[in-house]
Structure formats: structure tokens, C-alpha cells
Structure prediction request, 502 residues.
Amino acid sequence: MKTAAIGRMAAAVLFVLAAGLLAQSPGKSGFRLDAGNDPRPASNGMNDLMIAGGRVWAANGEGLSVTADRGASWRNIGHEDGIGKGGISALDVCGNRVWAATGYDTLTSVDPSALPAGGGVGTSADGGETWVWMPQPVDSREETRYSPTTTHVQNITYDLAIVPGPSDTTVWIASFAGGFRKSSDRGRTWEVVTVDGRPFDPVPDLSHRAFSIHFDGRSLWAGSAGGVHRSDDNGLTWTTFSHRSQPRGISGNFVVAIATQKNAGRSIVWAATIETTSESGDTTETRGVSMSEDGGLTWSVKLPGVFAHNFAFHGPSVYVATDSGLYVSPDFGGQWALFGPIADKETGAIVTGPEVNCAAVDSAASDLWVGTSDGLALTGDGGATWSVFRSFRTPGAAGEPDTYAYPNPFSPFRDNLIGENGHVRFQYRLAGPARVTVRVYDFSMRLVAEAVTGRERPAAGDYAEMWDGRNDYGEAVANGVYFYRIDVSGGKSRWGKVIVMN
Prediction:
């Protein structure tokens, strides 16, 4: 299933082939997990969502978070539980069989900037309880049949797909520097597959740079920097569809996500397609969503100019997670609407930033789940009301202070954007109903802003108030250290500190 990690990273990715050979022997985890033992997901940065067997699987920056009770409790699976280093970069679930890949940022002597690296690929046969984890697939330096990928740097798995078979399962991965690879022995060995039959070499050949892979029950669909590719024989032969290969082609050859919508006898392939102009030189390519109802022979372009990351479906409805927010079409892409801001129906907690990374629909419950960089959201009534799930440390518990600010340091121009204004959260916990006022002071203890005045909080629980980094005159405050005080009716005041840094 496609992850949103690819979207922004892949658009500006640098191809680096550094030295290094990783072992290919799998290692079995002996960890067991308690179900539903955490009150919230492990991270706010969501990359992918899948729903299978009554469970919602959320791939995030800290690992996998799983809920079977609509978010009332979570099971968080991280590195200590047997999965690889980093956050989940790819995920697919089929029954109790789970496949996942991880990725993380690294520094190299070739480039001092952080580069994405593959943390490996792993599988669980028991719903995430125990794992067999393998290093990121790489090639021997002695490989002569094609250009070998000998490092995990830039060799990150952005997508994977499970293809069930009569006797066993084939798993496919799409890894930028490693190309498309398949394993028929549960990850012990991997075979490089090219969609054009030429020897693998991702430096000159854009179709060898792999970003998305999807199995629709009959056909295997692959997305590269060279277009959309379809195989009806599990990767033995391929047909390629690109921007210029047909009169009605895809909007752009850089394909970051593929999914299939099946409803009322119709089967529609959807692809998130962006431009490769910087490398191909074709200025007619654009970003958007491309759809085909005839197996890729002809395409229609929807949402032109929009950078899409992920798809979800419910009957004739199509949901598209994009940089601009969550789009929905109720009629197979005929008409489109953009969801408005998301806020929790009970606490008022707002999901900041317009970007939506992923979405999934639980058809049995008519639930729509949305993953962002600022947490998860759930609606069961088409977006009229929302429940927001966000990761945070519980104030006053396990040595934590009674209140804290995050992010800290905080930039009013970059962090937790709502419109053009950034926001910092002041987290705290109430023992019962109260009215809350929040004031911000500078280092000399002069009042800068009254961020919240007499807000009614109707019940005990965890809350967060927000400040936009501006004074009471609407001016952005200067860089420096600021103090805030949370006054609670009938209770003691709480003090905290935040650093403003633009």
C-alpha cells in the first residue's frame, strides 16, 4: 500500500550510490505484544493507513499503531518489538499477514545533508505480534548482469504489495535506488525486475526508479519516474503507459501512488502523477490525478495542479489525500469537493496544516480515517464531526511537568500552520471541569498576549491551547524566550517556557 513518505522526499531526491553491502539473512523477533495497551498512537506523523480484519493500521514516524476499537485504545509496534529502524515507509496487510518497510534519515560523507535510507523489510504472520525482519535488499559488488545497488542510502522502500498465490505469497517492493524487486520466499531472497526488460540501471533509465506498486486482484500495477506499468502475469511481461505514449495519457510520468476502485461492475485505476520536467525536459507534463477505466489504454486527468499522495474508496466515492487537503468525489471523479478544517468534536483540537498524507475507509462502519503530519482523524458522518487522535506525553505523569509547549523551539512561520500563521501548543491536564485562561510573557515578565480567555473545558482530561506567536496587537513577536501561565478556575496556575525562533 502506498505511503505518503514518497511525496515530498521523492520529488527532490538525489541519487547516491555509496559503498556498502548488507547481509540478507533474516532475524526473527521474539517479542510479544499486549493488544490495546496504549491510549494514543505512537506518533503524529502519519504515512499510510490500512483497514483489515476490523483493525485500523496506521503507519507513522515511530512504527505501526493499531486499533480495533475506533481509536479508544492502541497497540504501538516499534523498533523494540522487532521491526526495523525508523518510521514505516511502506505497508500492506492481507488477513493476519503483514508486510512493512522502514526508512530513516542519514548523513553521508558524500553529502552532509540528511538522505533517506532503507531500514529493511519485514513480515508478521500473526497480526503484528512477532516479526521476521530483513535488512534492506542490496546487491553484491560483484554483480555484473546489471548496475548493482550496494547501499541502503537512497535505497528506501516507498511501497510494497502482497500477491497471494496458490501455494505461497509473492511480495513486491518499490525502492527508489533498488528498483522493483520481488520475493517468493518471504524475503530471504529478492529478484530485480525491470518493466522494460533492459538490465537494471536507475541512473539513466527513469522507468527503473521505483515509487509505487499495487495488486488489484488480477493485475500488478507499478509506478516509476517513467510512467505507469501493468503486468497480468505477476511481472513476467509489462505494458507501459506514459504521458506521451498515447493520445490520452497520464498527466506526468512521475507516478507516486496507484490504487484501484471497484464498484457497480466498474474497475477504475487511479494514479497520482507529477511532472518529471527537470529530467525529461518535457514541459507539457503536469501534476494531478490520472484515472483509467480500460486497463490503462486511455486516461482522464482530474484535479490538475494538485500533488496527490494516496487514495481511498467507498462505493462510487473517491477520496484523494493531497498537499492541499482531502478531496472527495461522490461519483467516480465527476465532481469534486475539498474537505474543510478538521477539529475534534469534544476538545476542539485542530489538525493544523492543509496537507493530508493518507486516507482509508472502513466500509463496514462507514468510517473515514485521515492521516496527516499532525495526527489522525476519524469521521463516521461524512465529515460533519471528527475525533482527533494525537500523540503527546501526559502532563504530570511519569515525571513529566504539569505543562509543556510543543514544538519547542517554535517558529510562527513554519510550525503547525493554520492559514499563514504557525502555532505552538501548551499541553496540560485537568482533574475536572474548569475555565482556562492562557497568558504569554516576555523575559522581563511583561504581558505579551492573552492567547486564551476563559475557555470552558467541560470535563477532566488532557487539553492543549494554542498560541500563534503574535502579541495582542497582531504583531509577530521577536525571537527569544517566553513564559506562559495557564490559569484554571478553582485550581493552581501552571507555568511553562517556550523559545520562539524564526
Q: What stands out?
A: The chain has two domains: 5-389, 403-500. The radius of gyration is 24 Å. The chain is about 0% helix and 45% strand.
